[in-house]
Automatic annotation (TrEMBL):
Record Pfam families: CM_2 (PF01817)
Residue stretches making up the Chorismate mutase domain: 1-91
Lineage: Bacteria, Pseudomonadati, Pseudomonadota, Alphaproteobacteria, Sphingomonadales
Gene name per UniProt: tyrA
PANTHER family: CHORISMATE MUTASE
SMART domains named among the record's database cross-references: CM_2 (SM00830)
This protein's UniProt keywords: Isomerase
Name listed for the protein in its UniProt record: chorismate mutase
Keyword RNA-binding annotated: no
EC number(s) stated in the UniProt entry for this protein: 5.4.99.5
Origin species: Sphingomonas jeddahensis
An annotated GO BP: salicylic acid biosynthetic process
């Protein structure tokens, strides 16, 4: 029989993972709208200044939340790179 404490932790992790997926889906819906707007307005797919601001902001939030800021930056850079890829496809 599985450990009930471990089962409880795993259920919490499963709930958090589900929330993360839903949040990422919502974020990508908004970034898709941004990509369409950029394509229609002739704006570049990437905005390095904005990206650096976001990374700095998220690193600070990570530190405040006691999360490794290096990890949070890697995670955000992965998301940003994917968003830029989508934006470039829209401009294609």
């Amino acid at each position: 029989m599985a450990d009930d404490v471990l089962k409880g932790y795993r259920k919490s992790i499963d709930n958090i993972d589900a929330a993360l997926v839903c949040l990422l889906a919502e974020r990508f819906k908004v970034t898709q709208a941004v990509g369409r707007h950029k394509a229609e307005a002739g704006l570049p797919a990437a905005d390095p200044g904005r990206e650096e601001q976001q990374i700095a902001r998220l690193r600070t939030l990570a530190e405040e939340a006691e999360l490794d800021p290096e990890f949070s930056e890697k995670f955000l850079r992965f998301i940003i790179d994917e968003v830029i890829r989508h934006h470039r496809q829209m401009q294609g």
